[in-house]
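Example record for the data management plan.
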Amino acid sequence: MTADIPTLTVTRLVRLLENNSTNELSLPQYRVLGVLSTGEERASQLAARLSVAKPTLTALVDSLVERGYVIRETADGDRRAVRLSITATGRTALRATGAQLRTVLDEVLERCADPGAVLAALEDLRLALDLRWSERVAEQAAVRREVAR
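Corresponding structural encoding:
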């Protein structure tokens, strides 16, 4: 059996980006800050969205909090829930790492026959991932409502 080419391509690109991430942020840290940059999140939701185990997320967040990139707070009305927010310093690190990773991506895109089409396909993929996430959240909410009945 041979490898699935699109899947292999995505994993190769991820590895290339991992190998070219800055000393500022690892790729997993970059993903955490990237999601947090769209708005604060509860830790449990962030772990699910990033498809990582809660202990893995805790370790990532601990390192980001230590560096002043993330603030961890308890959610209003629920001391068990932890809300995470990106700081201004975190946004600066996110932008710097993003620019460096984009340079690597652009070097690959230069070798494509139609870089614009690849970028358009990546945007489609982003939208599909966001839609998949929204559907999963809605399904989980429906299950919780059903259990509560």
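Summary line stored alongside the record: Residues 115-148 form the longest helix (34 residues).
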